[in-house]
Design goal:
alpha/beta; Nucleotidyltransferase, domain 5; 5-stranded mixed sheet; about 40% helix; about 20% strand
Length: about 425
């Protein structure tokens, strides 16, 4: 995991209170990654001074967020054995739950965001049935934790659609039969017999938050993710903050129109949206159109074409598959160009089904983005595949980002309380 050093977070432009807050969060994240640390080790990893690190650890001990473990191993040169500490992971728990096409998937985590338990609840298609199943999953996982409801530091709920995160309302769901303006947070709270801190956000944002925390680092400027599988989306993260916009539309990349003349109709009702253009069905339809130009392709032996077939064949330099992937690359490149113009990210991460695209797709995409004429300026963010194997066929994995988000907000209350 990338660990931001003090020089990145302790900019002279920031206020002293902001610096203290960020340094405290940095040390907590370091304990989540490393497990057991001494003051000297924490200072070296973060590039903070030993005095600053010691004060932060003393405060975390006072808050009960970390525990003393006694003496550690002696230094390589035989020096005095240092005091070592670890995160008090079992002091609280967090639940992350998501609406899927089959029902509800919920996962229980500790403060270290290590998975403790999970379950799935199948349900009908109506919102009320799903809301009941969500409350059922949360209640059962809270019981499994063995902790009191007061030790549940947060519940993260993920859904697809446009979300008002401040109110916990799903403004525009993309589920058939679900009405706009669903009060997910309020409806869940009314079904629980204990008060809880509930966070509701778009599933892709939580996935991106996990990516930023676990594989591609934090504090590295702006990062964007592009997700595509059964549905498409993404997120934009600047520093540690998810960008949402006042209407909750930031990151709804799947509904950016890239070809207004396309006959590919999106679930939102528009034609030529990114989601529709790169869907497996539309890619297969384009392949059917041009298949006659490549009579010798081994893909003609397949009765049904899926994305994985085109990935594998293009990586083997099959001209037919390469032509199909080039079409898709054009859509991704146009989308990323728009992201650059809006947010100028340092990194763009490809998530979902296309994260398995392999070498041909990634290299072609990087070249296509690099070759866009930005006033003659060669400019392109780093484009990488996701290091997290999350797809809509494994929706429980989306829960991790929600858990990290809820834990970060829980830790934030101690940050805000620090004198």
């Amino acid at each position: 995991m990338y660990i931001a050093v003090a020089s990145e977070i302790a900019s002279p432009a920031n206020r002293p209170r902001d610096l203290r807050d960020r340094n405290l969060r940095l040390v907590v994240r370091l304990f989540r990654e490393k497990g057991i640390l001494s003051i000297q080790e924490a200072a070296a990893e973060t590039d903070l001074s030993r005095t600053t690190t010691a004060k932060i650890i003393a405060y975390l001990l006072e808050c009960g967020l970390i525990l003393p473990l006694g003496k550690g191993s002696s230094t390589p040169d035989g020096g005095k054995r240092p005091e070592v500490f670890c995160l008090n992971a079992s002091s609280v728990c967090v639940i992350s739950a998501f609406f899927t096409h089959l029902g509800i998937t919920g996962v229980l985590y500790d403060l270290n965001c290590d998975r403790l338990s999970d379950l799935s609840v199948k349900t009908g298609i109506s919102y009320e049935e799903n809301a009941d199943a969500l409350a059922q999953a949360v209640t059962e996982l809270q019981k499994r934790s063995g902790l009191s409801p007061g030790q549940l530091c947060g519940i993260a709920v993920g859904c697809s659609g446009i979300v008002d995160t401040g109110r916990g309302v799903l403004r525009y769901p993309n589920r058939v039969g679900w009405e706009p303006g669903l009060d997910i947070a309020g409806d869940l709270q009314s079904r629980l017999n204990f008060p809880a801190k509930i966070y509701v956000d778009n599933t892709c944002r939580y996935f991106g938050y996990a990516e930023a925390n676990l594989s591609h680092g934090r504090g590295e400027g702006t990062m964007a993710t592009v997700y595509s599988d059964r549905f498409s989306g993404g997120c934009v993260i600047t520093g540690d903050k998810l960008l949402r916009g006042p209407g909750g539309f930031v990151g709804e990349l799947g509904h950016m129109v890239l070809d207004a003349d396309s006959k590919a109709v999106c679930a939102c009702g528009a034609s030529g949206c990114f989601e529709a253009l790169v869907s497996g069905a539309n890619v297969a339809a384009y392949a059917e159109e041009i298949a006659g130009q490549f009579p010798n392709s081994p893909l003609h032996d397949e009765t049904v074409w899926g994305l994985q077939d085109f990935f594998a064949a293009s990586n083997n330099m099959d001209p037919f598959a390469m032509a199909v992937m080039d079409k898709v690359v054009g859509y991704f490149a146009a989308l990323i160009r728009n992201i650059i113009l809006l947010h100028d990210p340092r990194r763009v991460v490809i998530q979902g089904a296309y994260a398995d695209g392999g070498e041909y797709f990634l290299l072609a995409l990087r070249e296509a983005v690099q070759n866009y004429p930005f006033y003659g300026i060669k400019h392109s963010p780093e484009i990488t595949y996701s290091q997290l194997n999350f797809t809509s066929d494994n929706p429980d994995n989306f829960a991790l980002g929600g858990a990290i988000y809820a834990v970060d907000n829980y830790i934030g209350q101690f940050v805000r309380a620090k004198p």
